[in-house]
Amino acid sequence: MTPAPQILSRSQIVAAAIGLIDREGLDAFSMRRLGADLGVDPMAVYHHVPNKAALFDAIHVLIERGIDRG
């Protein structure tokens, strides 16, 4: 019996990317490495984000929202 395919979401991908960058640094980041961390083929990530720049934009937005501007 084959395992059920993992269902990805954009928020899961962004969170995993942030974790990978925190652990390994931005220079070590790659979509291939992100796919490995998520346990999926790296191409599966591209169903949710068109490219690395769009993923970095999503990370930026998430971080910016978390900053207290008060």
Task: Give structural notes.
This protein has 70 residues and is mainly α. It has 4 helices and no strands. The chain has helices spanning 10-24, 31-38, 42-45, 52-66. Helix 1 crosses helix 2 (31-38).
Rg from alpha-carbon coordinates: 13 Å
What low-confidence regions span 5 or more consecutive residues with pLDDT below 50? Answer: none
The secondary-structure class comes to: mainly alpha
- Approximately how much beta-strand content do the residues carry? under 5%
Taking the alpha carbons of the first and last residues, their distance comes to 54 Å
How many H/I helices?
A: 4
Mean pLDDT: 89
Percent helix, as a range, is 55-70%
Strand elements, count: 0
For the biggest sheet, the summary is: none
Shape descriptor:
globular
Oligomeric form: single chain
Q: How do the SSEs run, as a string of H and E?
A: HHHH
Search tags:
single chain, mainly alpha, 70 residues, 4 helices
What's the SSE blueprint?
Blueprint: H1 10-24, H2 31-38, H3 42-45, H4 52-66
Offer a quick outline of the entry.
By secondary structure, the protein is mostly helical. The protein has 4 helices and no strands.
